[in-house]
């Protein structure tokens, strides 16, 4: 049962509509309530089983993993673990499928176990039911409430990555002999690779540590084309998105969105539950050569609190040509930021910035790689916030954040914990509170929907893509699949001609693409075209081979053979970024102003993660000072247990949706 505090908090929130997002969803999207899961109010993760069966797994904190088929929950769960739902907050926190699921049928879970311990275990899918429970990682101390972490994903190197939170706020993120506040990397059998950055064998370090200095890690996803791990980390002072490499230090607990040189700064961040209003200096608006620079008054907050890509409203500047809604493009100094404004040169004074609340706790994320949405979505990073918001990050040509928008808004109390791409190319959002939403672009005409736009096919192996139509056809449609280029090494193995009718248009059909074994080490590239018999656009899927010459991983440690694994470094270049075009205003009734050209990243893929609630931290802005962000009883407070009661008490404390205005 949800706590009284939670419901009181929701009542308080609805009393301040002027501070909430002006619109609920981007104008180019449609959102429907796809599924209501009866008697479930503790959902944590979801993911489609990667076998073409159309099964959707939904994990719950209480221990069941439900199976959804054709929009209905099946009577038999995949697994049923037994957890006590109390102040200890035991339960399932993470879920990931083995990259070789087609052969070994392994599904991995991250759980907070009885007795304050964390454990990773796997089940084998046999006939749709999980059997042969096998513990992979054990003995990690657990915290209580919202401190455990829960991010779990496989990397392109075949290794298993997981995020451990700050546990009880012991502030051990710097201590390499402790697992808390760190990203870990192990082989699928739980043994530790000797090339981990802090591996010291018989020394005191926790050898599985891969990166450190993060408060609570609930969302982990690898970015296709770069090989970098994106990590969603929450604390009372800042909600941060990191792009992490081996050995990085995210700054916690010493720095929270204020990382100096030598620490990893977030690629994007926002303040939990805060409506920002901050004034400019008397001559703080200067525009030259189409770029406007705004200088902030006083020293209450530095400009890097508004990271590149942040959408701000500029208002009340004496020269009204400066006013409007814009994306931050840079920071000339710690007191100033720039935006693009293609207007004549000018200087003015007065005015202020405003930033609408962007959420409370950053949750799971994914990179979009389908073809149902416009090309401007390809490679975008999409992530959920527990407040009930789906965020979208678009990238500039150099890979930096160009724009950040809220594209779905169901605040207050939406409880969004996960987002995933379905076999039909639509986006599915999981709510902690019994619901799954389905998001699609506003219909723009008939289209061929292909499950992936970019493939890497190992030499001598095959990959399967799913194909359907966006809407029922007037007459039967045939789709012809052909390979263009590749020197014959890449070909259509099966499914070269598909037929869609008014009865089967939405049922995915399968096309198998293969890469031939050859004697050379050259990477071959080909384009597979999906050409419909009717007059609507051809879809092209890019593919390349992965050659056999892959260096083996250094020898295993502890006498356990973990097998060879690829280095966790960068992947092959994902290609050039395309023009992302413009986005309809997703979050304000004000004039949208000029939006920057964002760009997309090719070879997006889909990786799943989910989210959590936070502990009652402080309402401090994103720049906490060294060593002093919270008191010693605190900690970061955004773990992986999604507690409605904790959320309620934090809200009642007045730290969420509270206007924050600079001291004048």
From TrEMBL:
It holds the Pfam family GSDH. Residues 1-20 form the signal peptide. Transmembrane segments: none annotated. Keywords: Signal. It comes from the Bacteria. Residues 546-555 have a biased composition (Acidic residues). Residues 178-198, 544-635 are annotated as: Disordered. Residues 556-566 have a biased composition (Gly residues). Residues 45-257 form the Glucose/Sorbosone dehydrogenase domain. This is Glucose/Sorbosone dehydrogenase domain-containing protein. It comes from Corallococcus caeni. The lineage of its organism: Bacteria, Pseudomonadati, Myxococcota, Myxococcia, Myxococcales.
């Amino acid at each position: 049962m949800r706590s009284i505090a939670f419901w009181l908090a929701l009542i308080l929130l609805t009393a301040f509509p002027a501070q909430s997002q002006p619109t609920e969803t981007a104008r180019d999207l449609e959102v429907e309530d796809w599924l209501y899961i009866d008697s479930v109010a503790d959902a944590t993760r979801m993911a489609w089983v990667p076998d073409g069966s159309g099964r959707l797994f939904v994990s719950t904190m209480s221990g069941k993993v439900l199976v959804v088929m054709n929009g209905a929950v099946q009577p038999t769960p995949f697994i049923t673990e037994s957890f006590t739902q109390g102040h200890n907050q035991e339960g399932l926190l993470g879920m990931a499928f083995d990259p070789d699921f087609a052969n070994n049928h392994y599904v991995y879970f991250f759980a907070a176990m009885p007795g304050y311990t964390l454990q990773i275990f796997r089940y084998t899918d046999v006939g749709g039911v999980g059997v042969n429970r096998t513990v992979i990682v054990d003995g990690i101390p657990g915290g209580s409430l919202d401190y455990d972490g829960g991010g779990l994903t496989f990397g392109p190197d075949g290794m298993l990555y997981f995020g451990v939170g700050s546990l009880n706020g012991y502030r051990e993120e710097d201590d390499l002999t402790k697992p808390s506040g760190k990203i870990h990397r192990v082989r699928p059998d739980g043994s530790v690779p000797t090339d981990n950055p802090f591996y010291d064998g018989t020394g005191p370090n926790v050898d599985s540590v891969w990166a450190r200095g993060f408060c609570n890690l609930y969302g982990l996803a690898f970015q296709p084309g770069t090989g970098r791990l994106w990590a969603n980390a929450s604390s009372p002072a800042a909600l941060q998105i990191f792009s992490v490499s081996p050995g990085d230090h995210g700054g916690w607990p010493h720095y929270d969105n204020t990382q100096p040189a030598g620490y990893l700064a977030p690629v994007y961040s926002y303040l939990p539950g805060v409506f920002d209003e901050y004034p400019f200096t008397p001559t703080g608006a200067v525009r030259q050569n189409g770029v406007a620079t705004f200088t902030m008054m006083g020293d209450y907050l530095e400009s890097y609190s508004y990271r590149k890509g942040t959408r701000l409203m500029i208002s009340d500047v004496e020269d009204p040509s400066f006013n409007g809604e814009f994306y931050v493009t840079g920071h000339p100094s710690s007191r100033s930021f720039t935006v693009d404004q293609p207007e004549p040169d000018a200087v003015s004074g007065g005015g202020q910035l405003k930033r609408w609340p962007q959420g409370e706790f950053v949750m799971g994320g994914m990179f979009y790689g389908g073809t149902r949405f416009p090309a401007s979505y390809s490679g975008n990073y999409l992530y959920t916030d527990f407040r009930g918001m789906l965020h979208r990050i678009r990238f500039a040509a150099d890979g930096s954040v160009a724009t950040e928008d809220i594209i779905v808004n169901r605040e207050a109390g939406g409880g969004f914990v996960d987002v995933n791409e379905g076999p039909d190319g639509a986006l599915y959002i999981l709510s902690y509170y019994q619901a799954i939403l389905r998001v699609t672009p506003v219909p723009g005409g008939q289209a061929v929907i292909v499950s992936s736009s970019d493939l890497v096919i190992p030499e001598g192996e095959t990959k399967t893509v799913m194909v359907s139509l966006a809407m029922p056809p007037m007459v039967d449609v045939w789709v012809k699949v052909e390979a263009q280029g590749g020197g014959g090494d890449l070909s259509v193995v099966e499914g070269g001609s598909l037929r869609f009718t008014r009865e089967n248009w939405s049922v995915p059909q399968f096309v198998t693409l293969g890469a031939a074994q050859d004697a050379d080490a050259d990477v071959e590239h080909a384009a597979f075209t999906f050409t419909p018999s009717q007059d609507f656009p051809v879809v092209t899927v890019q593919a390349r081979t992965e050659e056999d010459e892959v260096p083996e991983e250094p020898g295993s440690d502890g006498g356990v053979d973990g097998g060879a694994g690829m280095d966790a470094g960068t992947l092959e270049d994902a290609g050039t970024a395309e023009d992302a075009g413009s986005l309809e205003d997703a979050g304000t009734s004000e004039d949208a102003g000029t939006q920057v050209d964002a760009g997309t990243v090719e070879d997006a893929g889909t990786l799943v993660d989910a989210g959590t609630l936070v502990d009652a931290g402080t309402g401090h802005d994103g720049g906490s000072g060294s060593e002093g962000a919270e008191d010693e009883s605190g900690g970061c407070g955004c773990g992986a247990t999604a507690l409605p009661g904790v959320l309620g008490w934090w809200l009642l404390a007045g730290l969420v949706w509270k206007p924050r205005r600079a001291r004048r």
